Amino acid sequence: MASAPSKGSPRVASFKARFISTILLWGVVVAVFLSGALWGLVALVAAFTLLGSFEYLVLTREAPGKECRRWALIVCAGFLGLLVTQALNDPDSLKGADFLPEMAGVLAVTVGSFVLRLRFPIEGDDSVRAIALALLGFVYIPILFGGFIIRLVLLPPSVESGFWLVLLVVLVAKFTDMGAYLVGTLTGRHKAIPHISPAKSWEGYLGSLFFAQAGAFGVYALGKEHFAWISGVHHIAILGFILALAAMVGDLAESILKRSLRVKDSGHMLPGIGGVLDLIDSLCFALPVAFLYVYLLVL
Q1: Per-domain residue ranges for the chain?
Q2: Closest CA to 67 of 11, 10, 116, 32
Q3: 152 near 246, Cβ under 8 Å?
Q4: Residues 133/116, Cβ–Cβ less than 8 Å
Q5: 225 exposed, middle or buried (CB, 10 Å; 0-12, 13-18, 19+)?
Q6: Tens digit of each residue's pLDDT (9 = 90 or more) over 75-106
Q7: Secondary structure class of 274 (helix, strand, coil)
Q8: Which end of the chain is more exposed for a tag (fewer CB within 10 A), N or C?
Q9: What is the value of pTM for the model shown?
Q10: Could you give the C-alpha distances from 183 to 175, 186, 208, in angstroms and in order?
């Protein structure tokens, strides 16, 4: 019989570190949520976006074209500055489908990266990879995470309702991750995509769909009056389902990135969890899906 892990074992130490990091992170999130202050959410999102973008720069340090990704990080800071200014001073400008800040950022990263590569000789596909990685990093983190979470909180009729909508998306994404892990660990027999994520199972993914519904309806039950602008509880169920699918793909997308770059962890900023990208990977896909669904089919 296998002995129980001792107090000093790596598994116990990892669990303790993960538990402490999770409590601290949720403490910050709950504090921002309870404050109801838009500036608090915007500041938190900007911090995670900058940290995640810097982490991406470190993650791709062995790939060609580091100067392009540094330029993308500079553009990220400018993009966030513009987005934060609009969110706090002119929130109505971010409620529609006018994605001028995002378009300007993509244009700046693309043109700037091509300009930076003009001084390098053409060696295979190095220049193309450099420009593509810079553009991917800008779209993946500043736009899909930073841009869409700020736009999502401003989409409902009131900022308070927007906070609850963002909370629903975050909890569904995290419940999806938790469900996949718990159900997969207990009952997982059939590997889902072993060449990308060996630990994931079809049983885990099926279980995560039920966890996602529990997260969605749990938030809805707690703040029902803040979802009065949504006509029909079926939208909550649909959101729970499609956000779970998006969160799964978001988690696998980071696995593709790490395996392609031959790195195990995106970072070590969060003890027991990993890097910022490990924390927001599922949200990078869930947030845009939530925005598009609410904008096109609910409002």
Answers
A1: 36-154, 158-299
A2: 116
A3: no
A4: no
A5: exposed
A6: 999 999 999 999 999 998 898 878 999 999 99
A7: strand
A8: N
A9: 0.90
A10: 12, 5, 7
